[in-house]
Design brief:
The chain has five helices and eight strands; from the N terminus they run βαβαββαββββαα. By secondary structure, it is of the alpha/beta class. It has one domain: P-loop containing nucleotide triphosphate hydrolases (Rossmann fold), CATH 3.40.50.300. A six-stranded parallel β-sheet has the order 2-5-1-6-7-8, with helices on both faces. Strands 3-4 form a two-stranded antiparallel ribbon. A hairpin with a 2-residue loop joins strand 3 and strand 4. The two termini are 21 Å apart.
Protein backbone atom coordinates (compact mmCIF):
# COMPACT_ATOMS: atom_id res chain seq x y z
CA UNK A 1 0.00 0.00 0.00
CA UNK A 2 1.29 3.48 -0.87
CA UNK A 3 2.23 5.84 1.95
CA UNK A 4 -0.62 8.37 2.35
CA UNK A 5 0.03 12.05 1.67
CA UNK A 6 -1.56 14.87 3.69
CA UNK A 7 -1.05 18.44 2.56
CA UNK A 8 -1.07 21.53 4.76
CA UNK A 9 -1.95 24.59 2.71
CA UNK A 10 -2.47 28.30 3.31
CA UNK A 11 -1.05 31.69 2.44
CA UNK A 12 2.59 32.48 3.07
CA UNK A 13 3.18 33.27 6.78
CA UNK A 14 -0.15 31.75 7.82
CA UNK A 15 1.56 29.33 10.21
CA UNK A 16 1.71 26.12 8.17
CA UNK A 17 5.30 25.29 9.12
CA UNK A 18 4.71 26.07 12.80
CA UNK A 19 1.60 23.88 12.86
CA UNK A 20 3.41 21.01 11.13
CA UNK A 21 6.34 21.41 13.54
CA UNK A 22 3.92 21.10 16.47
CA UNK A 23 1.86 18.19 15.02
CA UNK A 24 4.83 15.95 14.14
CA UNK A 25 5.86 15.26 17.79
CA UNK A 26 2.25 14.26 18.59
CA UNK A 27 2.30 11.76 15.73
CA UNK A 28 5.76 10.46 16.64
CA UNK A 29 4.68 9.93 20.27
CA UNK A 30 1.82 7.82 18.90
CA UNK A 31 4.33 5.67 17.02
CA UNK A 32 4.08 7.25 13.56
CA UNK A 33 7.08 7.45 11.26
CA UNK A 34 6.60 10.71 9.35
CA UNK A 35 8.28 12.18 6.28
CA UNK A 36 7.77 15.77 5.17
CA UNK A 37 8.04 17.36 1.75
CA UNK A 38 8.10 21.17 1.45
CA UNK A 39 7.12 23.02 -1.71
CA UNK A 40 9.39 26.01 -2.39
CA UNK A 41 7.56 28.01 -5.02
CA UNK A 42 10.40 30.46 -5.51
CA UNK A 43 13.23 27.94 -5.72
CA UNK A 44 15.96 27.32 -3.18
CA UNK A 45 19.61 26.37 -2.76
CA UNK A 46 20.58 24.39 0.33
CA UNK A 47 24.13 23.56 -0.69
CA UNK A 48 26.89 25.76 0.76
CA UNK A 49 29.33 27.53 -1.52
CA UNK A 50 32.83 26.15 -1.16
CA UNK A 51 31.78 22.79 0.35
CA UNK A 52 32.79 19.63 -1.52
CA UNK A 53 29.20 18.86 -2.56
CA UNK A 54 28.83 22.38 -3.97
CA UNK A 55 32.12 22.00 -5.82
CA UNK A 56 30.99 18.66 -7.33
CA UNK A 57 27.72 20.26 -8.50
CA UNK A 58 29.52 23.31 -9.89
CA UNK A 59 31.87 20.99 -11.78
CA UNK A 60 28.88 19.56 -13.64
CA UNK A 61 27.52 16.63 -11.64
CA UNK A 62 23.75 16.33 -12.16
CA UNK A 63 23.30 14.71 -8.74
CA UNK A 64 25.41 14.86 -5.61
CA UNK A 65 24.69 12.76 -2.53
CA UNK A 66 26.25 13.36 0.86
CA UNK A 67 26.14 10.41 3.26
CA UNK A 68 27.09 10.00 6.88
CA UNK A 69 26.08 7.57 9.58
CA UNK A 70 22.35 8.08 9.96
CA UNK A 71 21.93 10.89 7.39
CA UNK A 72 21.69 11.43 3.67
CA UNK A 73 21.29 14.55 1.55
CA UNK A 74 20.86 14.75 -2.19
CA UNK A 75 21.27 17.73 -4.49
CA UNK A 76 19.95 16.91 -7.95
CA UNK A 77 18.87 18.63 -11.13
CA UNK A 78 15.28 17.89 -12.06
CA UNK A 79 13.70 18.53 -15.43
CA UNK A 80 10.45 19.83 -14.00
CA UNK A 81 8.45 19.96 -10.79
CA UNK A 82 8.51 16.54 -9.13
CA UNK A 83 5.25 15.38 -7.55
CA UNK A 84 5.04 14.22 -3.96
CA UNK A 85 4.02 10.79 -5.29
CA UNK A 86 7.25 10.60 -7.28
CA UNK A 87 9.31 11.55 -4.22
CA UNK A 88 7.45 8.89 -2.22
CA UNK A 89 7.86 6.20 -4.86
CA UNK A 90 11.53 6.92 -5.68
CA UNK A 91 13.07 7.93 -2.36
CA UNK A 92 11.07 6.59 0.60
CA UNK A 93 10.85 3.02 1.79
CA UNK A 94 7.53 1.61 2.96
CA UNK A 95 8.31 1.98 6.66
CA UNK A 96 6.68 5.44 6.76
CA UNK A 97 3.13 5.88 8.00
CA UNK A 98 2.48 9.34 6.57
CA UNK A 99 3.95 12.01 4.33
CA UNK A 100 3.12 15.57 5.35
CA UNK A 101 3.39 17.89 2.38
CA UNK A 102 3.55 21.64 2.89
CA UNK A 103 2.00 23.24 -0.15
CA UNK A 104 0.54 21.73 -3.32
CA UNK A 105 -2.83 23.42 -2.76
CA UNK A 106 -4.02 22.58 -6.28
CA UNK A 107 -3.19 18.86 -6.07
CA UNK A 108 -5.77 16.27 -5.07
CA UNK A 109 -4.17 15.35 -1.74
CA UNK A 110 -6.26 15.40 1.42
CA UNK A 111 -5.73 18.89 2.89
CA UNK A 112 -5.73 20.86 6.08
CA UNK A 113 -5.93 24.58 5.36
CA UNK A 114 -4.45 27.16 7.73
CA UNK A 115 -6.19 30.55 7.75
CA UNK A 116 -5.01 33.56 9.76
CA UNK A 117 -7.29 36.58 9.91
CA UNK A 118 -4.46 39.07 9.33
CA UNK A 119 -3.00 37.07 6.40
CA UNK A 120 -6.21 36.22 4.54
CA UNK A 121 -7.63 33.14 2.89
CA UNK A 122 -6.62 31.20 -0.19
CA UNK A 123 -8.92 29.80 -2.81
CA UNK A 124 -9.04 26.06 -2.42
CA UNK A 125 -11.20 23.26 -3.68
CA UNK A 126 -13.39 21.75 -0.98
CA UNK A 127 -12.67 18.33 -2.47
CA UNK A 128 -10.32 16.51 -0.13
CA UNK A 129 -10.53 19.24 2.52
CA UNK A 130 -10.24 17.49 5.91
CA UNK A 131 -10.14 20.46 8.27
CA UNK A 132 -9.49 24.15 8.75
CA UNK A 133 -7.12 25.55 11.39
CA UNK A 134 -7.88 29.21 11.98
CA UNK A 135 -8.00 32.10 14.40
CA UNK A 136 -11.38 33.21 13.02
CA UNK A 137 -14.76 31.55 12.38
CA UNK A 138 -14.94 29.74 9.04
CA UNK A 139 -18.20 28.43 7.58
CA UNK A 140 -17.25 25.13 5.97
CA UNK A 141 -18.62 21.64 6.54
CA UNK A 142 -15.31 20.29 7.92
CA UNK A 143 -13.86 20.34 11.44
CA UNK A 144 -12.54 23.75 12.56
CA UNK A 145 -9.59 23.85 14.97
CA UNK A 146 -7.99 26.79 16.73
CA UNK A 147 -4.34 27.56 15.99
CA UNK A 148 -3.27 26.04 19.31
CA UNK A 149 -5.40 22.87 19.12
CA UNK A 150 -2.46 20.73 18.06
CA UNK A 151 -3.78 17.64 19.89
CA UNK A 152 -7.12 17.93 18.09
CA UNK A 153 -5.43 18.23 14.68
CA UNK A 154 -3.15 15.26 15.47
CA UNK A 155 -6.16 13.16 16.60
CA UNK A 156 -7.98 13.92 13.35
CA UNK A 157 -4.88 12.93 11.35
CA UNK A 158 -4.49 9.66 13.28
CA UNK A 159 -8.16 8.78 12.70
CA UNK A 160 -7.94 9.64 9.01
CA UNK A 161 -4.56 7.92 8.46
CA UNK A 162 -4.21 5.00 10.89
CA UNK A 163 -0.74 3.53 11.31
CA UNK A 164 0.10 0.51 9.25
CA UNK A 165 -0.35 -2.63 11.35
CA UNK A 166 2.57 -4.22 9.52
CA UNK A 167 4.99 -1.89 11.34
CA UNK A 168 4.26 -3.61 14.64
CA UNK A 169 5.12 -6.92 12.97
CA UNK A 170 8.44 -5.45 11.79
CA UNK A 171 9.48 -4.42 15.31
CA UNK A 172 8.87 -0.73 14.56
CA UNK A 173 6.39 -0.25 17.39
CA UNK A 174 7.24 2.84 19.44
Amino acid sequence: MAIPILSFVGRSNSGKTTLIERVIPELVRAGYKVATVKHAGHGFNLDTEGKDSWRHKRAGASSVMVLSKGSMAMFADVSDQISVEEVRDRFLDHSYDLIIAEGWKHENYPKIVVIREEIGEISISREGLLAVVSDKPVDLSVPLFGLDDVAGVADLIMKQFPRSLSHADQGLEA
